[in-house]
Amino acid sequence: MTGGSVASSPAVATSGVAAGPIGLRAWLRLSDQPFGAILGFLLPALLFYLAFTVYPVLLTIYDSIFRVLPNRPATYVGLANYTAVLTTDPTFWQAVRNTIIWASVGPVTEISIALLLALALYAKIPGMRFFRIAWFTPVLMSYVVVGIIWMWIYNYDWGAANTLLRFLGLGQLVRSWLGDPSTALPSLILVTTWMWTGFNMVVLLAAFHSLPAEVLEAAELDHCGWMGKLWFVMIPMVQPTILNLAILSFVGKMKVFDLVWVTTRGGPLWSTETVSTYVYRRAFDWNTFDLGYPSAIACIWFVIVLAGVLVLSRIFRRHQQLEF
Amino acid sequence: MGFGRPLGRGLLIVALALYTAFAASPFVWVFVLSLRTTTEIYADPYGLPLPPHFGKFADAWLGSSYDVYFMNSVAVVFSAVAIVTVVGAMAAHCLARYQFRGNRALYFLIFSTLIFPPQVTIIALFQILIEYQLFDTRIGLILVYVSLQLPITVYILESFFRRVPSDLFDAARIDGYSEVVIFWRISLPVAWPAISTTIIVNTILLWNEFLFAIVLISSDSKRTLPIGILKFMGDQSNDVGMVATGLMIAIVPVVAIYVFFSEKLIQGMTAGAVK
C-alpha cells in the first residue's frame, strides 16, 4: 500500500500487492486503490440495493406477463395483461386522468404561490425566520394526520370550509367537498398544495439568497425596475432550482397514494382514484388476488413517470437556451 | 427595493400573515380539539378548550393499542435509521473517496431510484417477504425501510464527503491507518453535520411512512403509528375528540424534533432541490 500511493502506473495493478482478482482490478482501473476496502464499504449498500430494489423491480416485470394467484403456480399470459390494461380497463384510464391532472396542476400552483411568498420574504420582511419555520411545518406531517384533519375541514356539517363559507354569506357554495365527484379531486389537490407550497418556498428563498449580489446590482445600475429585475434576472437565474422543484413535485404527485387512501379511497365514483390507489386496490384489496395484472399497471406507469421526467427536463433546458 | 414604501410593506405583511394562518390553523384546530370531549366539540366545533381535558391523552394511550403502535414505530424507525446511516455512510464514503470504473454509474443507479414509483417494487416485495417469512414482521419492514431511505442518504452524504479535502485522508494513510480506521476515525467525525441531518430527515420520513407499512404489516400488534391511527380512526370515527387526541400523539414527536433541529431538518429535506 505504501508503494502504491507513490506510483500510479498500471504496473502497480499487476504487482499483486493487494488482494483481489487481477483482471477485475485492472477492469475497475483501481491502480493503487485498495480493492478490499472498496468492496467492504460498498457491499452492504449493494446487497440492500440488489435484494430490495433491483430484484423486486425485475420480479414485477416478470410478474406482469403472468397470472399470479396465491398458492398456485403462475400461468404465462404473454402481453395479455398489458393489452387488457390499455384497451379494456376504463378505471385505469380514469386513474391516469386524475393522476395526470394532479401532477400537472400541483407543481404549477405550488411553485407559483411559493415564488410569490419567497419574493415577499426576500424583500426583508421582519419575522422571516418565524414565517419560514411555520410554512415548512405541513410537509413534516404524515399524510394520515393531514388526511384526517382535512376530512374534518371538508366535513359538511361542521367543517371549517363550510363554516367559513356560511360566515361569509356564501351559503349556496356549501357542499360535501369530498363526497361530490365534481369537487373531490380539486379539494384533494388543494390539500397537497397546502402541504408542499411551504417546502417550495423555502427552497426558492435559499436560491434567491445564493444569487450573486453583483448581478443584481448591475441590473439596478441598468435602471432595471423591480419587476424587470424579477422577471429578467432573478427568475431565469433560479431556473435550475425551479426545474428541480417541478420534477420533485411532479414525481410526488404521480405517486400519490396515502392522502387518497386515508380520505376518499378513490371515491366517490372513482373521481379521486389515482394509479397508485388503483394498483393497491387490484393487488391487495380485491378478491381476485391476481398480482400479475397490477404488476403490468406498475410497469406501464413506471415508463410514463420516466418519460414525464425526461420531457420536463427537456422543456426546461430548451427554455433556458432561449433565455440566454 | 420596491417594497420600501410603508403601504406596500403593510400589504405584504397582511398577505404573509394570511398565508401563515392558512398553513398553521389546521394544526392549531387539532390541538384545540385534542383537549376537548366529543360532546363539547359537537356542541361548538370552534370553541376553546375550557376546561382542557388533558386526561384524554392518557385515555388514548391506554384505552386503545396506541402505546403498542407508538412503540412499534419507535422500534422500527430507530432500527432502520441506525442501519441506513451506517450502510449509507460507508457507501457514500466509498463513492466519494475512491476512484474506480463504474463509480459514477453506480451512484447514478442508486440515486435514480428516488424517482421510482413505489408500485414498481411493492407488489414484488410483498411476494418476496412472504417467501422468506418476513411478511408481517417488524424486521421485514425495517429492511425495506433501509432500502427505501438508502438513495437519499447516499446522496446527501456523498456530496458532503466529496467536499472533505483529500489531504486529510492522505495524511492518515501515510501515518499507517487502515482504510476502516480512516473511515471510522476521520470520515465519520468530519461528516457528523451531514450525518446528523440524514438521521433527522430519515427519522421524520419513516415516522410518517404509510404505504409500505400498510402492505407489509397485517397483524394489529405490529402496526406502526400511521396505520394504527387509521385503524383507530376506523374504530371510533364518530369520536372526533378522541381521534384528535390520537393525532396529537403522532404530531408531538415530529414537532419536538422540528423545534430543536428546524434548520437541520429544512436543510436536509431541501437537499438537492437547490441548484
Sheet-strand content of chain A, in percent, reads under 5%
N-to-C series of helices and strands of chain A: HHHHEEHHHHHHHHHHHH
Which value, in Å, is the CA radius of gyration of chain B? 23 Å
| Low-pLDDT regions of chain A | 1-19
Kindly describe this structure:
The complex is a heterodimer of chains A (324) and B (275). With 324 residues, chain A is mainly α. Chain A has helices at 2-6, 11-14, 22-27, 35-63, 80-88, 90-122, 128-136, 143-153, 160-167, 181-209, 213-221, 226-237, 239-254, 258-263, 275-285, 292-323; strands spanning 66-67, 75-76. Chain A folds into 2 domains: 2-63, no CATH class; 82-323, Orthogonal Bundle (MetI-like fold). In chain A, 71% of the residues lie in helices and 1% in strands. In chain A, helix 6 (90-122) runs parallel beside helix 10 (181-209), helix 13 (239-254) runs antiparallel to helix 16 and helix 15 packs antiparallel against helix 16 (292-323). Residues 1-19 of chain A have low confidence and may be disordered. Chain B has 2 domains: 1-64 and 239-251, no CATH class; 65-235, MetI-like (MetI-like fold). Chain B has helices spanning 6-34, 38-43, 55-63, 66-97, 103-112, 119-131, 138-163, 166-174, 179-190, 192-207, 211-216, 225-235, 240-269. The model of chain B has no long low-confidence stretch (mean pLDDT 88). Chain B is an all-alpha fold and 275 residues long.
Short description:
The complex is a heterodimer of chains A (324) and B (275). Chain A has 324 residues and is mostly helical.
Q: Which tags fit this structure?
A:
heterodimer, A: MetI-like fold, 71% helix, 1% strand, flat, disordered N terminus, B: 275 residues, mainly alpha, 2 domains, globular
